[in-house]
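Hi C.,

You asked whether I'd gotten around to modeling the 267-residue construct. I have! Everything is below, sequence then structure, no commentary in between.
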Amino acid sequence: MARAPRLAAGRARALGLPTRGTTNPNRLRRVDRWVAHAHRALLAEGEPLVVDLGYGSSPVTTVELAARLRAVNPRVRVLGLELDAERVAAGKEVADPPGLDFRRGGFELAGARPVLLRAFNVLRQYTEEQAAEAWTTMVGRLAPGGLLVEGTCDEIGRRCCWVALDAGGPRTFTLSCLPADLEVPSDLAERLPKALIHHNVPGERVHALLAELDACWAAAAPFAPYGPRARWVEAVRLFAGRGWPVLGDRRRRRLGELTVPWEVVSP
């Protein structure tokens, strides 16, 4: 039975459980570039604070996040949070405050009030109920109008799924992949966020979405000679043509993305 979230000992009273800590360079590039595109307005003005929660044993993905978001606004400030003191110390070695810093913290965000919070690969060890509680805790600590992007990905970032939430609740759900890495789009089911992964069964919306996307992938087989990316773009076009509300334009599809409103997959 999974343990309930706890307050870790110490002055910071950081809320949560330590993660496995595995990470790799460029693992989170897909979600980073989606954030920079889809939520550019959150980052474009002033000196916005962005928090990267649970960056793992290496601070590399936090450093990469800062570099990518500075292409939108060079005054973006990025704060990496971890429960483990050794991981925080590793971050401090590459810190460059105030633009890039590291601190001990968990779901309470160490008192920070970011406009954007990225929490990737941190909720898989929790139950669905605990993950929902963590969503509530994290969203409650965002700045007004802020956004939480929570999801999971494989070790090298070729298969990713995430949810974007604000104070009103979940807003969008995104699948992102390297199409050449898939046999069928439903291979992404292994990376569904905790809120959805146990609902990938017949009768549930997320299962219906993946089944329909697989059918469109099969129908797009004539595009296979042009490469997996062209086949993915055609599959998503067919998917939208069957009445599914796809967000974003063709450029996003060429990146291996598919974003839909949350209510399309909501349990």
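If it helps when you're writing up: The two ends are 23 Å apart (CA to CA).

Thanks,
B.
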